[in-house]
Design a protein that fits this description.
This protein has helices at 3-9, 29-56, 73-84, 103-113, 125-138, 148-157, 164-180, 183-193, 203-211, 220-228, 243-260, and strands at 92-93, 200-201. The chain is built from eleven helices and two strands. It has a domain at 96-260: Biosynthetic peptidoglycan transglycosylase-like (Penicillin binding protein transpeptidase fold), CATH 1.10.3810.10. 54% of the residues lie in helices and 1% in strands. Helix 4 (103-113) crosses helix 11 (243-260) and helix 6 (148-157) crosses helix 8 (183-193). The protein is elongated. It is mainly α. The chain has a two-stranded parallel ribbon with strand order 1-2.
């Protein structure tokens, strides 16, 4: 028997050919994925569009570097509030440059409202943390931890409502104010738009109304009284000295005298 016959007679095992189609893809997940896609689109698109329009409508604060505002959101809100009650209020508002406002008032307002004004970039994080802890312990919103720049943003452009949306808008405007304006200009704007009584806006009007003199001539004592009423200018009056107001005035007067005795200028920018 030759080799060819030996090979042909050797046992051979064959595996029959079969076709195993791949398992069918699960179609149960498709409707869920499609549903989630459309829900995300329906919710996300309006949110994105709202966010873009919200950013576009932010005020242009760069103009404040060259021009003074002719009105503020706070002034307009006070007018609307009075009209809703069936009465009208006057508007005593005289704009003056920072150089015509007593340095005593510069010191007093910074000490009263934002002691770290010249060192922060719009937000006093330590103050915010302290205010949050105080509010948590008190169980209500009593302190805001707002800086002078944040208060300026609110006075110029925002309503008095308390909401996360308004706080977010305030934060963005505050950031832009700090980016485009010097500290000196921010302080000048704030001192000129701050409310100092019923229909009294700005340091010049406040000095004339409460003390019968221009703001440049305010003494340290008078400046301390004006700064002392800032938390509630329509509630307190420097000529009606309550216990709270007197204590606040004494503390601010000490800070003014201490700051005035130093060689550091009020505003270096």
């Amino acid at each position: 028997m030759d080799e060819h016959q030996k090979v042909s007679q050797s046992p051979t095992f064959y595996r029959p050919y079969t076709y195993d189609p791949p398992p069918p893809k699960s179609t149960s997940r498709r409707p869920v994925a499609r549903f989630l896609f459309w829900i995300s689109l329906l919710i996300g698109l309006p949110v994105i569009l709202f966010g873009l329009s919200w950013l576009i409508t932010l005020p242009d604060v760069t103009a404040l570097a060259r021009t003074n505002p002719t009105s503020t959101a706070l002034i307009e809100a006070r007018q609307i509030e009075a009209k809703g009650k069936g009465r009208t209020i006057g508007r005593h508002w005289i704009w003056v440059p920072l150089s015509r406002i007593s340095p005593h008032l510069h010191h007093a307002v910074v000490a009263a409202e934002d002691a770290s004004f010249f060192s922060h970039e719009g937000f006093d994080w330590e103050g915010i943390k302290d205010a949050a802890m105080y509010n948590l312990e008190a169980g209500e919103l009593k302190r805001g931890g707002s800086t002078i720049t944040q208060q300026l943003a609110k006075n110029l452009y925002l309503s008095s409502e308390r909401s996360l949306l308004r706080k977010a808008r305030e934060a963005l405007i505050t950031y832009h104010l700090e980016q485009h304006l010097s500290k000196k200009r921010i302080l000048e704007l704030y001192l000129n738009v701050a409310e100092w009584g019923q229909g009294i806006y700005g340091a010049e009007a406040a000095a004339q109304h409460h003390f019968g003199k221009p703001s440049l001539e305010l003494t340290a004592d008078e400046a301390a009284w004006l700064a002392a009423i800032l938390p509630s200018p329509r509630r307190y009056d420097p000529l009606r000295k309550t216990t709270f107001l007197t204590r606040r005035h004494e503390r601010l007067l000490k800070l003014i005298n201490r700051q005035s005795g130093s060689s550091a200028p009020v505003a270096t920018e």
